[in-house]
Specification:
It comes from Turicibacter faecis. With 416 residues, the chain is α+β, with helices and mostly antiparallel strands. The longest helix is centred in the middle third of the chain and has 40 residues.
């Protein structure tokens, strides 16, 4: 087997050495069984206190500590569950659950509290002889995940333990080359982090702007600098006609067809407020057809939030599948404006949702919802501004995708 990577910094040469994980780094602790954790639930609280140690969960790492509802544990729980503080640069590797195998690099100075302990269902690793951050990037490679899949297997609940982890083998270079590689990927990660923050700032700006617009704190003027007429409160049934999609399922989809279609599930997974390009194609021309500026809303989902989703389609004659409410705006209503307004006032829809496991929204329940509607010209000015911001968000989001794609490709080339 080749013992050097395809892509390498020119100042380094020689073959990399193969070793088991247990020789490459220190496996500090194994996960604690969920049952053990349940036994001391009374020792856990959801507020910040100087007398408590913060429980670092994998969900906190995934959200980069953006969730402020931190969990803290008292001394009893601390002594029972956790044998080490996160007081050194470390790697946390979830070994059970939805994010199994995703690695997280933890720097103590970035943690919200100085007294941090590791939650259950994760393995903690660090190295005294190798570069810990290099190992973190190693855990992001295809080579690592390929071996991990073999350990996890396909049956039962996916999981692995530290004994299995110890036996995994990888090629590693000298410490000097490790440091160079880790520094290089850290720069890429910094670009991704800054670009992601830029996208989030734009999203927050859009959210705040929509609040000002739909509360009428911010108003637009005509070309002569005069205010537009006051907004009028109208019931939804007075500004749209209601229809329903039908006749499509996932089995009708095909990449080789040219008939555009939209399925209800795509409305909360694939599309935002405006649908410019239809992504799916179906086998036959069937079902209810769209008209430009129709507003599409799913009629069923597992969460109420999924039902409080509206997308204005700008393409005629698209096949619309079942479980889609079609709101066809009347002449003086801009469908894009209505889509933004419905999404902004999600609570008006959510309170009308019915059902237990599967949630539903029916026309009879939403037709009486009232919205404040400006004149058509002001609607257009509002939509033009919001579309401009959305386009900026999409443009900056593509940069994040580009950086991630670059990182993924380089990880493939610079590791064995």
């Amino acid at each position: 087997m080749k013992k050097v990577p395809n892509l390498r910094f020119k100042e380094f040469s020689g073959e990399w050495e193969s070793n088991k994980i247990e020789k490459i780094c220190d496996i500090i602790t194994d996960y604690v069984a969920a049952g053990s954790f349940e036994n001391i639930r009374n020792s856990v609280t959801y507020y910040n206190s100087e007398n408590f140690a913060q429980l670092v969960r994998t969900i906190d790492l995934k959200s980069n500590f953006n969730n402020k509802d931190f969990i803290f544990v008292d001394e009893k729980a601390y002594n029972f569950l956790y044998r080490v503080n996160l007081n050194e640069d470390s790697i946390i590797l979830p070994n059970i659950g939805a994010n199994i195998g995703e690695s997280y690099y933890v720097e103590p100075e970035k943690l919200p509290s100085e007294n941090n302990v590791l939650g259950p269902n994760a393995i903690l690793l660090r190295s005294e002889i190798n570069n810990t951050k290099y190992i973190y990037y190693l855990f992001n490679t295809k080579a690592f995940h390929k071996q991990l899949v073999q350990i996890i297997g396909a049956s039962g609940q996916p999981k692995f333990n530290k004994t299995e982890l110890k036996q995994m083998k990888f090629y590693v270079p000298t410490i000097e080359e490790q440091e160079k590689i880790a520094s290089f990927f850290s720069l890429i990660d910094k670009k991704i982090e800054l670009q992601t923050e830029k996208v989030e700032e734009l999203k927050n700006y859009k959210k705040g702007l929509m609040q000002k617009i739909f509360s009428q704190e911010l108003r637009f003027k005509d070309e002569n600098g005069k205010k537009y007429p006051e907004w009028e409160e109208k019931k939804l049934e007075n500004i749209v006609e209601f229809f329903k999609g039908n006749g499509l399922s996932k089995s009708d989809l095909s990449d080789n067809e040219d008939i555009p279609c939209v399925l209800y599930g795509e409305l909360f997974t694939q599309y935002d407020e405006v649908i410019n390009v239809v992504k799916s194609r179906c086998l036959k021309d069937q079902g209810f057809k769209s008209e430009k500026y129709d507003v599409l809303m799913p009629t069923s989902d597992v969460t109420p939030e999924g039902l409080a989703t509206a997308s204005c389609i700008l393409v005629d004659d698209v096949c619309l599948g079942g479980d889609i409410n079609v709101l066809r705006p009347k002449k003086y209503i801009n469908g894009i404006f209505l889509s933004y307004q419905i999404n902004h006032f999600k609570s008006l829809i959510i309170r009308k949702v019915s059902g237990t496991t599967i949630k539903h929204i029916y026309v009879k329940d939403i037709k009486d919802i009232k919205y404040n509607i400006p004149c058509e010209k002001e609607q257009i000015k509002i939509t033009d501004l919001l579309i401009q911001i959305d386009n900026k968000i999409k443009f900056e989001s593509l940069k994040v995708e580009s950086y991630n794609k670059l990182k993924k490709g380089l990880l493939q080339q610079m590791f064995i």
